[in-house]
Amino acid sequence: MFAAALLGLGASVTAAVVHHRLLTDPGYASFCDVNATFNCTNAYMSAYGELAGVPTALLGVIYFAAVTLGLALLSRRGTEHAVAFGYLMSLAGLPVVAYLGYASYAMGTWCLVCLVTYLAVFALFATSTAALRSPMSTVVSRLTRELSALARVPSALAAVAVFAVASVAVVRWFPATTVEAAGEEQAAAGTPAIAPLAPAQQQELEKFIAAQQRVPVMVASEGAAVVLVKFNDYMCPPCGQTFAEYKPVLAKWAREYPGKLKFVTKDYPLDPECNQFAPGGSHLASCEAAVAVRLAREKGKAAPMEDWLFANQPTLTPASVKQAVQAIAGVSDFEARYQTTLQLVKGDIAQGNQLQVQGTPTFFMNGIRLPGLRAQFLDAAIALEMKRAGVALK
Q: Are 120 and 66 contacting, i.e. CB atoms less than 8 angstroms apart?
C-alpha cells in the first residue's frame, strides 16, 4: 500500500509540475506529449484539467499525500487499521479515476502520467482488499474510533495540521485561471476580464516571441496589424477548448481596437476521408463538419454552427452534422454541394501541410507558430505584436 501511495504521489507531483509549466512558460513542451493520442498538454488544458477550480494534478498530490500520511500514522497503531484506511481511501479514489478515465476516452487524448496515478489507485485498492481481514460492517466504526484516539496524540495532530496548511498553500500558490471573474460592467456585457501576466511570465513570453522564426502564411491582412490563424478540427477537444477560452481575448481586441486583429480559421480535419496526412482515428465526421461551417457561413450562420459542433463533439456523426446544418442554417443541399466545398477544405489542408501542421489546433500569429497558449498568454502576445506593428495601445 505504501508503494502504491508513493507511486501515485510521485506521478501526481510530476503532473502538477508539468501543469504549472504549461501555465507559466509559453515555450514549454511537455515530455509526455508523444502524439495526438498520448498528450498531457491536451489533457491538462481541457475542461477536465481541473475539478471545482483546482487542477486535478494538485488534487492527486493532496490525495496521495493524505494516503501516505494516514498509512504512516495508523501503521504504528496496528496493521489492520492502516489496511482499513487504505481500503476506504481507495474506494474514495476509484470513482474519480473512473470519471477522469472516461473523460480521456471521450476526448481521445490520454495523459501518460495520469495513467500512472490511475494504476496507483487500483493497486491501492487491490492490495488493501487482499489484506483486509475485518468484515466491512465493522471497518468504518473501528477506524473511526482509532482516528479519534489518534487525534489525541500531539505529534499526529501536528502532522495533520501541517498537511492541511500545506495543502491550502499549494492550491493558493498554483497559477490562477486565465479568465478572471468579471466586474459588474463586464459581467453585464458578458465579457470576462483577462488576467494580466506576472512580470516573470511577461519576460518569458517576450523572450519566446523574440526567438521565433516567422514563416509566410498566405492570408490577406486586410489592414490588420496582427493576423492570427488557427488550423482547426471541429472534433478535436483542444480545438474546442481554445475556441471557448480565446473568445474573450478576441472580443476584447475587436472591441478596443477594431480592425487591428484579424482572426482566421483554417480547416485541418483529422479525417483520412479528406486529409491524406491525417492518421487514422475517431474524427470521422470532421470533414462534414468543416463543410457544414462553410455552407453555414454563406447563410450568416457560421458562429451558431461552430457553437453547436463544439458543444456536441463527443457524439458527432456525418448524419448528425448534416441534420444540424439544415436546422441551424437552412442548408438543404448539403449532399449536392459536399464534394465541391470539400475541395476548398482540401486547399486549407494543403496549406497546413506546407506549414508542417501535424496536429490541431495549430496557431500562427504574424507567421510565428504558437504553442497551445492559455488565454492570458495569447492576449499578451497579441499586445506585443501590436506594439511591434506600431499600434498605440491604451
A: no
Parse the chain into domains and list their residue ranges: 2-173, 189-388
Residue found under cell 474519480: 96
121-144 pLDDT, tens digit per residue, is 999 999 999 998 877 667 677 777
pLDDT in tens, 252-295: 999 999 999 999 999 999 888 899 888 766 688 999 999 999 99
Q: Span 189-388: which CATH code? A: 3.40.30.10
Tell me the CATH architecture of domain 2-173.
Answer: Up-down Bundle (1.20)
Residue type, 24: T
Which residue type sits at 322? K
Cell of 233: 478540427
d(C-alpha 145, C-alpha 273), whole Å: 63
Q: How many CB atoms lie within 10 A of CB 232?
A: 28
What CA–CA distance (Å, rounded) separates 347 from 209?
29
Cα three-residue angle 26-168-241, rounded to 5 degrees: 35
- Take residue 157 and report the three cell numbers written for it: 495532530
